[in-house]
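=== RUN LOG ===
request id: a7f3
mode: sequence -> structure
chains: 1
length: 417
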Amino acid sequence: MNATIINIGDELLIGQVINTNASVISQMLTSKGFDVKETFTIGDNAEEIRMYLEHCTERSDIVIITGGLGPTKDDITKKTLCDFFGSELYENEKALCNIKRIFEKRGYELTETNRLQAWVPRCCTMLNNTLGTAPGMWFEKNEKVIVSLPGVPFEMVNLMEAEVLPRLQKHFNSGFIINKNIIIQGIGESFLSDMIEHWELSLPKSIRLAYLPQAGMVKLRLTARGNDKAKLEQEIAEATKTLYPIVSQYIAGEDAETLPEIVAQTMKKAGKTLASAESCTGGSISAKLTQLAGASEYFNGGVTAYSNNLKEKLLGVSPNTLATYGAVSEETVREMVTGIREKAAADYAVATTGIAGPSGGTAEKPVGTIWIAVASEKQIVTKLLRFGDRRAQNIERTCNAVFSELIKLVRAENAEA
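=== RESULT ===
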C-alpha cells in the first residue's frame, strides 16, 4: 500500500518550526509495511489543501495530513476537508467531553472558541486525542483512506500509535517489513561501498539495502518486505552474518539508530561505569548520552574543561604538559582522560581536545586537529583525528569517533574477562 504525507502550516514553510512530523510519520508507516510515496509541505491555504488532496488521493491508498486543526481563524484544514468530502460539521459529544476533561484538569475556562474544536465533519470517524483538544479524523473515499491529525508532534505520535496504525493494518492487511540497522564507523561511504560490492549484489531480491551516511559514520539499513515473516527474518539474519567477515573491524553495532544507543547497551551489558572530560566537543558527549533514558545506570558524569585553567584544576592536567605540548596534544588528552576517570571513580573514561574551528588553527595544528582518548584501568587508547573547518560537523564526527573507540575497548576487555 502506498502512502502520502501532507504537512500543513505557514510556520513550516518559513522555517519558524522544523517539520519533524514528516520523518516520524514516514518511519512509523514504513515500520508497518506501508510505502511512503511522497511528502508535501504546504501553507494554510484552502485551495492548495484541496489541490494536494485531489493529487494525493489519485496516487496513493493512504493520505496522512497534519496541522491546521487549532481553534484560531488560520486553522482551516477541518473546514476544507468538510468541503472536500461534501459533508457538514457537527459537535461530536465524545470530542467535547475530552476537551472539557483537559480544560478542567488544567484549571482553564472552556471558551466558545475552544468548544469549536469538538466540531468535526459528519462523514468522518473521530479519533479521540487524549493528549490535546484537536481530535483526529478518519475518512474513507473510493477505497482510499485519508487521516487528518493535529500538528503538535507528541499528540500526532500518540494518535498514530493508538488509533491510526492499528486501523490501517486492519483495513489493508499490509504484510510484513523487517528492518536491520548496522552502524559502520571509521570508513567512508564510497570506500565501504567498494568493499561490500560483491556482498551487496548477492543479496536476495526481497532485501533492499540503503546507505545512510552521517557525520563520521554510515548506517546500513537492510529492509525486507513480504508476507512470510519468518522467511524475511531468516534472510536478514543470513545477510548480516555474511557481512561480518568483510567489514567486522568497522561495525560498531546493530539494531540501533545511533552510536549513543550502542554505547548505552554496551556499558549496561558489561556492568561498567563511564565519565567524560570534554574540551572541543563542549559537553556534546555528555548531552548525547544523557538524552537517553537510563543513562544514570552507567554514566557517572562529565566535565567540560574549555580553558587550560580548568584542565589543570578539575582534571589534574600538568601545567608543564600544557606549556610543553599545548592543550591540543596526545599528552594533554591522556592526562585529561586519566584525571576524569580517577575523580569520577569510573571504570571507563573518554576525553576530547582539539580545534573545532572555524578559526584558531596554526601551521602545526590546523583547524580540525583533534585528539581523543578512551581509558580503562588497564590501558589508554588515543587517536589523532584530522577534519575540516566546519565546527558543527567536527564536533559531531569527534563524538562518533569517541563512541566507536569506547565500544571497541569495552567489548574487547569484557570479552577477555
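=== NOTES ===
The chain has three domains: 2-172, 176-254, 259-416.
DSSP finds 16 helices and 17 strands in the chain.
=== END ===
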